[in-house]
């Protein structure tokens, strides 16, 4: 039992979110057994779930790790980073803030350089789709939606919650990397650390993009 639950936790850590059927296939045990393991993990505060609607058929539950479970293997590193950011921001004469800005700007550039070859497509929608695929493993973006005011980039699970609480520049570093990869202006309009349901960015339409509304 313990070994199977460990497998489930590791799968959710890598894939971020899976259904019971997907977990059943991955660990090669029956759905009722997977459900019992998930109930135990949920009782221990390690797993949570959300209802996912489908175009056809009944909704299903998608399971993911709680913040407690995600931070447990490296909680020491998360706290260390949080303290470093807070100490840097508190340095006199804005010296720490300037250093923090420089480091995070370089991180944006390095992230963009690492994933630039994986961004492709002639239209903005195609580039956004490849961006989601590229950055999903980093935990930065999970999905996108086309709305009247532009393309919304969404992440339901902030990977840098502690760091973002200590310094808002962490979020801006991610926004800058996304902008560099897309070659478009990107605004952040929601942060989970501010109480929003998800971290959310928007790419607003331009006249020359030739975007066609989805009917």
Report on the architecture of this protein.
The chain is of the alpha+beta class and 215 residues long. Helix content is 50%, strand content 16%. The chain contains 9 helices and 7 strands, in the order αβααββααααββααββ. The strands form 2 sheets. A 4-stranded antiparallel sheet has the order 4-5-7-6, with helices on one face. Helix 2 packs across helix 3, helix 5 crosses helix 6 and helix 6 packs parallel to helix 9. The chain starts with a helix and ends in a 12-residue tail after the last strand. The C terminus is likely disordered.
Number of strands: 7
The rounded Rg comes to 19 Å
Number of helices: 9
- The fraction of residues in strands falls at 15-25%
Average pLDDT confidence is: 84
**Helix/sheet category:** alpha+beta
SSE topology string = HEHHEEHHHHEEHHEE
Q: What strand order characterises the main sheet?
A: 4-5-7-6
What form results from the Cα inertia axes?
A: globular
Distance between the termini: 48 Å
How would you sum up the major sheet?
Answer: 4 strands, antiparallel
Low-confidence stretches: 208-215
